Amino acid sequence: MGRWIITIVFLVICAFFTRMIPYTSFFRNFNTMIHEFGHAITTLVLSGRVLNIELYADHSGVTRSAVAESWKLIPIGLSGYLIASLFAWFLFAMDYKNKQKLGLVVMTTIAAISLVFFVRNEFGIWWLIGFIVLNVIMIMFARGNFERIYYLIIAFLTLEESVFSAFSLVIYAYNDPAHAGDAALLREATGLPAMLWALVFTVFALWCAMKGLSLFAKKRSRPNRSPGGYAHRTYSEYSGNPEYSGNSEYPEYSEDRRGRF
Predict the structure, then answer these.
(1) Is residue 261 part of a domain?
(2) Pairing of strands 252-254, 61-66
(3) d(CA 175, CA 79)
(4) What is the pLDDT of residues 67-123, one digit of tens each?
(5) Left, alpha or beta for 232 (phi > 0: left; psi -120 to 50: alpha)?
(6) How far apart are CA 71 and CA 233, in angstroms?
(7) Which of 104, 128, 180, 257 could disulfide-pair with 115, CB 3.0 to 4.6 Å?
């Protein structure tokens, strides 16, 4: 329980300070893009059709797709928040392995796929172009700490948004269950309350956040490594340590995401 509380406190503090950094609003749309991309990919895996994706300036978005059987709406409805949360964890895993550039390449590739195949509204198109161009510049020219700082800004904002967007769904499910986005869709598909689904999304997002932050903390606490990859240790660290002693007919699915904090 202690780790859950620490994660929540850290996210609240992080949300406060990241809003003081200029231009972070631009990068908050990345979580929305991953969310909608998750819906789109799941639809295609289930042999459905993705009609379009729209991304909006208020960090909300909508995916319109069509599937043949109504049961397929369940995995489609689940995929947005779950994939966004898992991707936030993935970003921290890449940082832990010192593969920030690979993480940027993955982000840029998903953005490019979304731009070419899915996103059709004006804001979404221009946001994706800007994000791709900025990432390409960073991939080509950024090095060392500058690259990692840029990467971590995106990672922390994605992590923060993945949790708070899920938590905002709890509020919407309480005030107006019929308009609680994916939770409302799952309520119609399963008969289970929208609040239940909103809580599932929130708990899962917190769990992924806890995993991601633990990797970040673990990296900060492990010994520095030389360019050759060997840890710098003193004699005192080794001595006494036993370790070193020696279609149109399809029903249409339209996700209506609401705003967030």
Answers:
(1) no
(2) antiparallel
(3) 23
(4) 999 999 999 999 999 999 999 999 999 999 999 999 999 999 999 999 999 999 999
(5) beta
(6) 57
(7) 128
Examine residue 236 and state whether it is found in any structural domain, yes or no.
no
* Amino acid at residue number 221: S
- CB-CB neighbours of 244 under 10 Å: 10
| CA separation for the pair 63, 254 (Å, rounded) | 6
Strands 61-66 and 49-55: antiparallel
Separation of alpha carbons 51 and 256, rounded Å: 14
| Amino acid identity, position 81 | Y
In this prediction the pTM is 0.83
Inside any domain, residue 232 = no
Which tokens go with 101? 């550039």
What is the H or E stretch that residue 2 is in? helix 2-18
Q: Residue 80 and residue 168: Cα distance in Å, rounded? A: 14
Residue 26 within a domain: yes
DSSP state string for 82-114? HHHHHHHHHHHHHHHTT-HHHHHHHHHHHHHHI
Sequence-separated contacts (24+) of 18-22 with Cβ below 8 Å: 18/156, 18/157, 18/160, 21/153
Q: Partners of 66 in the beta sheet?
A: 49, 252
